[in-house]
Design the sequence.
């Protein structure tokens, strides 16, 4: 056996082996059943790519419980085919009943948007600022004057959650589902890094009228 320290990737593979064995000890047929049957999650999680907010871990969920999509600063853009295709597939054929848009305290993407909003025109050659451009525009509509940095970030985090919930409710997959009487619930949640707790800010469902 090598005496060299394992790198992070090798650590993950070893941890996966230990995890799989622990699942098999508790439920010998878990993985066989999972492979043999279609997924039936009831929740689509649209969250931030931040490594401190893993959907399955912070909700104590098992494989198959959550259909997930993440990106920087938990955005849902009308022009983003990636997010829209995930939402469309989650609603039909997967059949999720809840879409949760999850932001979190101390979001690095929000901090970047606040910084960019203060600097003037967006640098479109930078992929991060291109992605954050809608959030940067949102920041510029908010009064953050005199707020300590952490309070300013919290204010934008919550405003961003409400905006992305609006975007989801106005998306083609949700508009179509609601028009057909499929009452998919759309939630806005914020996760607190300091406590590990989730708080619901908003929930929308039929007969919500898109703006």
Sequence:
């Amino acid at each position: 056996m090598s005496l060299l320290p394992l790198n992070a990737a090798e650590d993950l593979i070893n941890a996966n082996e230990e995890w799989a064995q622990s699942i098999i000890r508790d439920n010998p047929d878990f993985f066989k059943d999972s492979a043999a049957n279609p997924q039936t999650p009831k929740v689509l999680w649209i969250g931030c790519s931040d490594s401190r907010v893993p959907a399955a871990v912070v909700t104590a969920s098992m494989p198959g419980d959550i259909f997930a999509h993440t990106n920087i600063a938990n955005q849902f853009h009308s022009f983003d085919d990636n997010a829209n295709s995930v939402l469309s597939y989650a609603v039909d054929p997967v059949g999720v009943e809840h879409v949760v848009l999850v932001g979190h305290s101390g979001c690095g993407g929000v901090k970047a948007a606040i910084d960019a909003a203060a600097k003037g025109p967006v640098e479109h050659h930078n992929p991060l600022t291109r992605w954050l451009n809608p959030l940067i525009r949102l920041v510029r509509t908010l009064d953050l004057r005199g707020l300590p940095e952490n309070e300013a970030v919290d204010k934008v985090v919550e405003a961003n959650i409400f905006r992305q919930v609006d975007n989801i409710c106005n998306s083609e997959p949700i508009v179509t589902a609601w028009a057909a009487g499929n009452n998919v619930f759309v939630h806005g949640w914020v996760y607190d890094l300091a406590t590990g707790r989730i708080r619901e800010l908003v929930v929308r469902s039929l007969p919500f009228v898109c703006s």
Observations:
- The helical segments are 8-26, 30-36, 55-58, 81-94, 108-119, 127-139, 149-169, 172-179.
- The two ends are 62 Å apart (CA to CA).
